[in-house]
Every structure is written in C-alpha cells, then in structure tokens.
Automatic annotation (TrEMBL):
Organism field: Malassezia cuniculi
NAD-dependent epimerase/dehydratase domain span: 5-82
Gene Ontology MF term list: protein-containing complex binding
InterPro entries found in the cross-reference section: ComplexI_NDUFA9_subunit, Epimerase_deHydtase, NAD(P)-bd_dom_sf
Coiled-coil stretches noted in the UniProt entry, renumbered to this chain: none
Protein name: NAD-dependent epimerase/dehydratase domain-containing protein
One cellular-component annotation, GO: mitochondrion
Pfam families hit by this protein: Epimerase (PF01370)
Length: 290
C-alpha cells in the first residue's frame, strides 16, 4: 500500500495531489506550516479532506526533526512548496501589495523591510533549501527499494517578468537532489516542470491567462502545421535578446492543476519515470494523447 508524504498538502497543487492519491486508494500524510486541512477559497471543506486515509500535520520543511517520523513511515514523498514572488511582508503574498513588493524586489529595486520580519521568504529558502532538506530527510530514512521523490519544479518561462532567481533556485534544488540520489541509489527523483497552472474554482484569476496562452500556443502550432510564412509572436520574441523564456510561455501548454496531480501519482507508480519532466511529459503521464 502506497503511503504518500505531501509537503504543502493544503495548498493549490498539494491539495490536488492529496485528492488524486486518495482516489487511488492510497494513504496520505500532509504537512504544512499550519497543519490545517485544505479549504476552498470560500472556506468549504471538500469531503475528501475528512477521509480516514489522510492525516494533517504541522511541520517546518526546513526543520526535519518536525516530521522525520512521519516521512519515515511513508513510501513516497512529494514536495509542492515554493514561491513565485518574494513578498517582504508577512501576509502580503497573493495581495496586490505583495505582488508589487515581490516584483520590485525581483527587478532589483529596494523596498522597505518589515522590522519585525526582516528576512521574509526568499527564493533560496523556499524554492531550494526546503526541497533539498525534505529530500535529504526522505533519503536518510529510505535506503533500499524504490523511493520516489517528486518535486514540483517549473518551466523556464517567467524571465524577465519574474526574477531569474526564481528559476535558478528551482534548478539548483534539482541539481542538489540529484546529488543526494547519486549517494543513495534507492532515491528516485522526479522534477515536474509545468508552465502556468490553473483551476477555475480554487484559483479563478488563472483561467484568463491560461486561455490567452493556450490560444497563442494554438496559433503557433497552426502556423507550423500550415507552414505560414508570417512569424508568430513566439517566433518574434525568440529573435529578441532575452526573449526565449517569454516565447516559451507562448508555446508551453497551460495545465489544469488536476493534470499535474495525476502526473505526480503516475510518476510515483512508474519506476521508469526519473528526472525532469516538461509540460508535454506531464500531460503524457496524466494520460493525455498528444
């Protein structure tokens, strides 16, 4: 019986992973800073959150002593925690002020620090160190057999809108976890690299950009299929210095968060899946036929 350890199980991606794992009949252990079960944006508790096959715990990903016994009891682990923007004030993430602060900091503009919390969440701590710490804790307690460790990484499609440190720390985490896997042959690291993820109910604002990006991708594919001589926006951006990541955003399929969750479950089950998986691989793992 698979017992899945999910870091951030009450978050956007983590909750979808928990739900998909329960649908497979697995047992699930969710850890998060609050330890609270998942709730919808309107505060509702879906039926699956009260299943007797899932438990909710408070733990700090950077403090393995807070979850070592829990992770040792699981057969696979998924790390879904990370930040897209560095928002310097606690409680501002997701707010307009938090987005503004995060963008300004990423672009190199100084903003005033909160004197009560001067460091705040950083890409290095949240995107790299947390994932590596959890992977090491899982590796130390699983030294034989197949020990799948799935990390939610990202496609490189955000620069220069988002600070390059966002994707750099994701790639650093992948490299460091791969080193851990070299030291422990049982550890099987999988890095899912989606572009934009959306859900019309739990993240309503994501639907419009997903629709726009999907339309841009469709236009690009149609141009390629019909061999139309005029360049698409993605073609034009690729000719601009530094424009490759944004061009990639226009050709990378946006993914419903449930598609990503299905890919997580499949990569845990399939011992042949290892290493980076891009958006097309994720759709294939989730059962799509390209």
């Amino acid at each position: 019986m698979t017992r899945l350890f999910v870091v951030g199980g009450n978050g956007f991606v983590g909750s979808a992973v928990c739900k998909a794992a329960l649908a497979k009949g697995w047992n699930v252990v969710s850890v998060s800073s609050s330890g609270r079960p998942f709730r919808t944006p309107k505060g509702h508790a879906p039926a699956w959150t009260t299943s007797d096959r899932i438990s909710w715990h408070s733990a700090d990903a950077l403090a393995p002593e807070s979850y070592r016994d829990l992770i040792a009891s699981c057969t696979a682990a998924v790390h879904t925690v990370g930040i897209l923007l560095e928002s310097q004030y606690k409680g501002q993430q997701g707010s307009l002020a938090g987005v503004a602060n995060g963008l300004l900091k990423g672009w190199g503009f100084a903003t005033s620090e909160n004197p009560l919390q001067p460091s705040g969440p950083t890409y290095e701590r949240m995107n790299r160190d947390a994932a590596v710490t959890v992977a090491r804790a899982f590796s130390e307690t699983h030294t034989s057999g197949d020990a799948p460790f799935v990390m939610l990484s990202a496609a490189d499609v955000m620069r220069p809108l988002i600070s390059p440190r966002y994707i750099e720390t994701k790639r650093e985490a992948e490299a460091l976890i791969t080193q851990i896997a070299h030291e422990n042959a049982a550890l099987r690291p999988v890095y899912l690299r989606p572009g934009l993820m959306y859900h019309p109910h739990t993240r309503p604002w994501s639907t419009l950009p997903a629709t726009i990006l999907d339309a841009a991708r469709g236009m690009h594919l149609l141009h390629e299929r019909l061999r139309i001589p005029l360049p698409t926006p993605a073609d034009i951006l690729r000719r601009v210095p530094g424009g490759e990541p944004i061009a990639g955003a226009l050709t990378t399929p946006p993914l419903h968060v449930d598609t990503v969750a299905a890919a997580v479950v499949d990569s845990v089950e399939n011992a042949q899946v290892i290493g980076p998986q891009d958006a097309h691989d994720i759709r294939r793992l989730a059962g799509w036929k390209e």
